[in-house]
Amino acid sequence: MSRYLDLARRFPKGFAWGFGTSSYQIEGATKEDGRGESIWDRFATIPGKTHRGENGEPGTDSYHRWREDIAVLKELGATAYRFSIAWPRILPDGTGAVNPKGLAWYERFVDALLEAGIEPFPTLYHWDLPQRLEDRGGWPARDTALAFSDYAGVMLGALGDRVTHWSTLNEPLCSAWLGYLHGSMAPGIQDAQAAFSASHHLLLGHGLAVQAARSIAPKAQMGIVLNVGPGMPASDSDEDREAVRRHDASDSGWFHDPIYFGRYPQEVIDAAGITMPIQANDLATISARLDWHGLNYYFPAKIGNDPHGAGLKTTWDHIDGPKTDMGWGMNAGVMRDFLIKLKNHWKAPKIYITENGSAWPDSIASDGKIHDPQREAYLIDHLTAAAEAIEAGVDLRGYFGWSLLDNYEWAYGYDKRFGYAYVDYATQKRTIKESGRAFADLIKVARAG
Ligand code: FCB
User: Fold this and answer.
1) What pLDDT does residue 204 have?
2) Per the confidence metrics, is the pTM higher than 0.85?
């Protein structure tokens, strides 16, 4: 019986309980069955870019061990699974000929999920752009948005009869700001103009894909997954509070305003001194009605005013207090408040928390178990915040724990463990952690209603 009986009962019946992963982080098999190269395969070859030069091989070898993954999902009591489709498996060159083996893999996987009674929530793009498209300009080039829409059409055509909930992009903020501005993620470029152009073409690709999906599979429920790191003021001063407002404009505002209001925050454009490559009707395409909204939330940010700084004149840091193994601060109340803002300010449709979770330095104890009370505490704090948001009237429909498995944590390689199941990379054995057991107990009570 769950220790969290009262918390479990605060969630409505029919609430989706799921776990998330992404293709590049788990699949491995990067050279198999005709898969093309992705920007992450290439990025990881650049010395110093990823921890020990690690890449998506072997991941959790899920390209071969997907049956084991489904078994773990079942054991956890999941009703839904969020995974992503590797564009370079479907269209190895990004455009042109479809690779039938890649497509067949996802068809078989989706069928197996459905058979197991687990609803598939595929993401079309979780950062693994075909390298061939990057060679032709990547997201800073408008053609990439058109190519994305064509790829979306292929997937909706193949799986639109079986899959209801689709998301277009995962965290375009990270693709644009980390990939093209900070260069800490693939493709590792540091160029403000490229980053802002990328952000627009990512969102345009999203809008075009939503249009394509609706014409191909009218029953598809289309969403987007946006991450946020809302600001908390470094001090009580008016200056720091005002700095938080500017930070939020470039963080959530930059991606939520075009989707919900059909415009970009002008002050961010002015501060960056860039030109937006917007063409007629782009913002109408981007702000097309969404069926659902995916929120990824891990941490807030401590924001201060920096009168001598560049751009938005803000300082950024993690908040004070305990940190996860990523060095990330923790505050669940900020997630609750952001959910309420999604409802009141942006008037988002039904919402899913598509990612939330924490990394800790796990190991297998002498009793064969993985004792991870900190992950469990983080989960409970954030589920409590989610329940509070529901009670405040937010139309929250599901929660996906990040992650189903320990996996390739991008530039951090295999060093950081986010899974509810531990992966021994030498054997690829999966073992559910104690936090996963506690979560499964909670899900069981919640599902019973
Ligand atoms: C998010 C990513 C996800 C994972 C978590 C920890 O930004 O979407 O793939 O790496 O962070």
Assistant:
1) 99
2) yes
Expressed in angstroms and rounded, the spacing between residue 82 Cα and the centre of ligand 1 is 12
**Atom of ligand 1 minimally distant from the CA of 326:** 6
Q: In what order do the strands lie in the sheet with 231-233?
A: 231-233, 301-305, 314-317
C-alpha 32/C-alpha 230 separation (Å) is 40
Burial class (CB in 10 A: 0-12, 13-18, 19+), 373: exposed
With a 6 A CB cut-off, is 335 part of the ligand 1 pocket?
no
For residue 128 and ligand 1, the question of a CB distance below 6 A is answered with no
Question: Which amino acid residue places its CA nearest to atom 4 of ligand 1?
Answer: 409
pLDDT at residue 399 in the model: 99
Residue 308 Cα to ligand 1 middle (Å) = 32
Question: CB of 170 closer than 6 A to ligand 1?
Answer: yes
Residue 144 CB–ligand 1 contact under 6 Å: no
What is the tens place of the pLDDT at every residue in 54-76? Answer: 999 999 999 999 999 999 999 99
Active site residues: 171, 355
